[in-house]
Amino acid sequence: MTDKKKLGRNQKDTEDDMINLVDNLNREDDLKYNRRAFLKTAVGTSVALSVATIPFTVRAMLGIAEEDHERVEIAKLADLPEGESVTFYYPTEKDPALLIHTVNGDLKAYNSACTHLMCPVFYEKTQDVLLCPCHAGYFDVNNGQPKAGPPQRELPLIEIEVDNGIVYAVGRQYRHG
Amino acid sequence: MGKKTCWSIIICTIIVNVVMLQWTVEAHYGREYGSILLFSGISIVSAFIALLTYLQWRKIEYKK
Ligand code: FES
């Protein structure tokens, strides 16, 4: 059939909507979005993902070099009755931490920035837990593990030493059992 | 090595790299420096495998 005999809407370059439905098939796109292009993108993705890990590696290498802690005095044991807690900073001025004398008489210390969104946690002595008021996050005071609420990671543990009635911070474990 | 194999290897490296990126970030949060190096290393090796596989695929695909 030649163009002349076709109805207007069936001719080439027609404006008719029902015919122009095929406009979504585009030859250029066919050349651009094909199997070969897909594989190339896949390889690119794989490489990009791996490159994304490199900044962490670099920071890790810098971090390993500076990994030693000093011994810092926190408080006198006599000033800290059972059920009380005191804030200190360890290992740097930017890391707030909490020394807790639990109602059971144990001494515990953790960095006090909540592992959810960094709000300060405090010791709630009536329930013997660490509580983050921001989104109601609860941590076990005995091991720093999250018990309830949004936090997923444990609070970093500060290793302490008691010497002559004075409590010292001597180290920090970021991940601990 | 056939083209199908190349495809599967490349898809596998993507999977491995997604997991490794996730683990690296987690290790970073936990300051486990050793694990960061390990995961990131695996990820880089896997990206290399992807590249080599791609070259191999290209050889077959564009031959003729
Ligand atoms: S910041 Fe602590 S629960 Fe959200």
From TrEMBL, chain A:
Q: Which InterPro entries match?
A: Rieske_2Fe-2S, Rieske_2Fe-2S_sf, Rieske_Fe-S_prot, TAT_signal
Q: Which domain of life is it from?
A: Bacteria
- What PROSITE patterns does its record include? RIESKE, TAT
User: Is the keyword Iron-sulfur assigned to this protein?
Assistant: yes
**Pfam families (alphabetical):** Rieske (PF00355)
Where are its TM segments located?
none
What protein name applies here? Answer: (2Fe-2S)-binding protein
MF terms (GO), sorted A to Z = 2 iron, 2 sulfur cluster binding; metal ion binding; monooxygenase activity; oxidoreductase activity, acting on paired donors, with incorporation or reduction of molecular oxygen
The residues covered by the Rieske domain are 72-169
| Keywords annotated in UniProt | 2Fe-2S, Disulfide bond, Iron, Iron-sulfur, Metal-binding
Automatic annotation (TrEMBL), chain B:
Its transmembrane ranges are 7-24, 36-55
This protein's UniProt keywords: Membrane, Transmembrane, Transmembrane helix
Name listed for the protein in its UniProt record: Uncharacterized protein
Which species is this UniProt entry from?
Answer: Anaerobacillus isosaccharinicus
